[in-house]
């Protein structure tokens, strides 16, 4: 009889129960999830049942976490995702959210680039917490990512990006995500990539301030290697600040654009 144990297809004897299986698979598990529900009493297993055993606070093995990811987005998708390196320029409201979404889908490697530290005002939209105040954003985001997927390779660059170091910083990445909140830095990065790094794909964002309609934030393909996300209109200014909902929507447009490029859906 075949069932799924921690997302892996497993053959067990007819009549085996969930708690009997726990004794052989993970005796010290605190939680047993049977067909999506936490159970306190034992159940006999049937064909194609699913059982997940969890030890609270324990980091799963890499192969177990990969099995869980594959079960959600199919083997061929995961095999492509884990081979890709993405560079993220700026780790604020856009970049921190993009990085976390990519880590959750099992991206192979992230090159995290920022020169700034976490400030209290960042907490209104960025993927940081009170314990990260005063930390470099590269270090803080590394900590956040490790708490959701510790098997993503992380390279941290604490630098201010300009014309002199963009090419070297991103020479080994497959896709670049522009995530600055400074219009000049946005322009410098995009223009450098388009003029000097034509082998790289770059995804940029502009226009996600305020609390306007979510539906005006869209993804546009500008060139074969250049994508632009946002509503193209609502920049941050007095009376129209950057807030978590629309910033996160734009960030996840960027992350989804990365995913679509990886899977050839351009």
UniProtKB/TrEMBL annotation:
Coiled-coil intervals, chain numbering: none
Keywords, sorted A to Z: Nucleotidyltransferase, Transferase
Occurrences of domain ThiS-like ubiquitin (ranges): 1-57
Domain of life: Bacteria
GO biological process, one term: cyclic threonylcarbamoyladenosine biosynthetic process
THIF-type NAD/FAD binding fold domain sequence ranges: 78-265
Entries under InterPro entries matching the protein: ThiF/MoeB/HesA, ThiF_fam2, ThiF_NAD_FAD-bd, ThiS-like_dom, Ubiquitin-activating_enz
GO molecular function: nucleotidyltransferase activity; tRNA threonylcarbamoyladenosine dehydratase; ubiquitin-like modifier activating enzyme activity
Signal peptide: none
Keyword Nucleotidyltransferase set for record: yes
Keyword Heme: no
Short name of one Pfam family: ThiF
PANTHER family from the UniProt entry: THIF PROTEIN, TRNA THREONYLCARBAMOYLADENOSINE DEHYDRATASE
NCBIfam families: PRK08644.1, thiF_fam2
Name listed for the protein in its UniProt record: Sulfur carrier protein ThiS adenylyltransferase
Record organism: Clostridium acidisoli DSM 12555
């Amino acid at each position: 009889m075949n069932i799924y144990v921690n997302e892996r297809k497993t053959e067990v004897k007819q009549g085996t129960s969930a708690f009997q299986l726990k004794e052989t698979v993970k005796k010290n598990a605190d939680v047993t999830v049977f067909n999506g529900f936490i159970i306190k009493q034992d159940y006999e297993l049937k064909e194609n049942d699913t059982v997940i055993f969890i030890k609270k606070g324990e980091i799963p093995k890499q192969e177990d976490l990969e099995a869980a990811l594959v079960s959600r987005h199919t083997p061929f998708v995961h095999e492509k995702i884990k081979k890709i390196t993405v560079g993220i320029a700026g780790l604020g409201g856009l970049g921190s959210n993009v990085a976390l979404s990519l880590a959750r889908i099992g991206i192979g490697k992230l090159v995290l680039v920022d020169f700034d530290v976490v400030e209290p005002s960042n907490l209104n939209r960025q993927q940081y917490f009170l314990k990260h105040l005063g930390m470099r954003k590269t270090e803080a985001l590394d900590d956040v990512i490790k708490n959701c997927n510790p098997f993503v390779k992380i390279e941290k660059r604490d630098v201010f990006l300009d014309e002199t170091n963009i090419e070297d910083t991103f020479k080994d990445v497959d896709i670049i995500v522009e995530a600055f909140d400074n219009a000049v830095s946005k322009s410098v990065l995009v223009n450098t990539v388009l003029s000097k790094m034509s082998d790289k794909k770059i995804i940029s964002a502009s226009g996600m301030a305020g609390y306007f309609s979510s539906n005006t934030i869209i993804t546009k393909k500008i060139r074969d290697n250049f994508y632009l996300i946002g509503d193209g209109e609502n920049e941050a200014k007095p009376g129209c600040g950057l807030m978590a909902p629309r910033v996160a929507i734009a960030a996840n447009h960027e992350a989804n654009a990365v995913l679509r490029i990886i899977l050839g859906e351009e």
